[in-house]
Structure of DNA-(apurinic or apyrimidinic site) lyase:
Amino acid sequence: MPEGHSVHRIARQFDRNVVGHRVAASSPQGRFAEGAAVIDGRTATQVRAVGKQMFLEFDDDIWLRVHLGMYGAWDFAGEIIVDPTIASANGRMGQTNQRGTDLPPVFDAAGENSLTSIGAPRKARGHVRMSEQTRGLADDGEQWPPPIVGQVRLRLLTEATSADLRGPTACQLQTPEEMAATVASLGPDPLVDDAAAGEERFAAVVRRKPTPIGLLLMDQSVVSGIGNVYRAELLFRARLDPHTPGRDVPDEVVRGIWRDWVRLLAIGVETGQMMTMDDLDPDAYRRAMASRDDRHWVYHRAGLPCRVCGTAIVLEEMAARKLYWCPNCQR
DNA sequence: GCTTTATGGAGAT
DNA sequence: TCTCCCTAAAGCC
């Protein structure tokens, strides 16, 4: 999925373009027809992102909970107000390729659909997918509303903007109580919780569990928003063996991981890319960034030499997910 | 055109 | 630990 950074970016898009607007809601695919009917005609009142989940509130205390899962995506089209705090240097937002690595920022040569925004937010005509699959900025032509393409679970339409949801693992309406219960089940999110309080909660849980730290980082009740890419990269950056039981990880190392997550998440939200090699020297960084499929310390680098020590990166299954790590550096 | 793959998670066993 | 669900693009023939 979009790991936590993507969800926060998407929430900001909703804040800019949908909150405060009356929406027309529909489920072209039909699988959320009842829910869409409830939302239809209501005004969106606020949006919240916690970890990998987004909550959009409508009139009368109706909350829409969306979890994108591994394949979910929001496509925005129309007149999109770009949030300057999430606009990437060259325009595209939150876009990554199918292989699990981030695409470098792509410049839209024509400029027409460029969503670049520096300074004050501005409106741009265009189409942007905020998720994990590759898709260029579509030339939507003048069609409004945009044609339905593929399986659209939910379409939210304001006067000027459309947002199409496809492939979510969860899309449901919740009461305020249900929404609060969902949020309560989630571990701290650096962009939601006070950083110091989040660190305390995280450290306290990790330090008393016998569970391998590699599993704890993926457990959304322990810490929110970390997925398979950030998990592998955080552990490498901490030079920590993923199998180390949480309670055996020194307190300062646990706290270091939390602080590193705070930093990486902020970079991710800002750039739309899972940048995890910000501390690499400039030349090596440039070389790594030049390759789409090889832009992390260990993620997706099975068999390739460790960037630090040259040892072959190991790929193993941990709880049915792929875990990449350097057996020499991380111990 | 068919197979594989993916940044996730719930529920059954 | 296993099975299932969700969707689309990349890779392969």
About this structure: Residues 4-182 of chain A form a domain with the N-terminal domain of MutM-like DNA repair proteins fold (CATH 3.20.190.10). Residues 87-119, 132-137 of chain A have pLDDT under 50 and may be disordered. The longest strand of chain A covers residues 73-82. Chain A has eight helices and eleven strands.
